[in-house]
Amino acid sequence: xxxxxxxxxxxxxxxxxxxxxxxxxxxxxxxxxxxxxxxxxxxxxxxxxxxxxxxxxxxxxxxxxxxxxxxxxxxxxxxxxxxxxxxxxxxxxxxxxxxxxxxxxxxxxxxxxxxxxxxxxxxxxxxxxxxxxxxxxxxxxxxxxxxxxxxxxxxxxxxxxxxxxxxxxxxxxxxxxxxxxxxxxxxxx
Length: 189
Fold this sequence. Notes:
Radius of gyration: 18 Å
């Protein structure tokens, strides 16, 4: 990590100094690990460090900072999941399902946690699995589910825990110039 920081410092000393004023190397490392864990490339280190410098001034929470970095990397993330024709094909949640999940989320120390019971998690997994299977049969891969930014981390963690092979993105992570096609809506009973 120190070698990476030193290398970037050669070209961009001001940005590295700014980020190191508000974030220790360990915090930066945990944020980079969180990004890599969800297959977000670190090729735009400048934007990543600038965002960490901006957000770490107000909070040292890895999850909060990581979500802000992800939003800043919207162009990179959109390109990752766009098909050859430049369209990002995705699933959404219907309004009622998303609203129910928002109501079931609580905020503590700036972090939103999704507080679903076993039955609700089961419904979420089953409904998403069914829609994902439909998309895969149509040849759409990977399956991308877009959710409210406040829900992204919680929903992604549930999908990961139950080995559901879908990409969970927030509205903030889709580039404003992107062309997208909604392939279906997930309804949680």
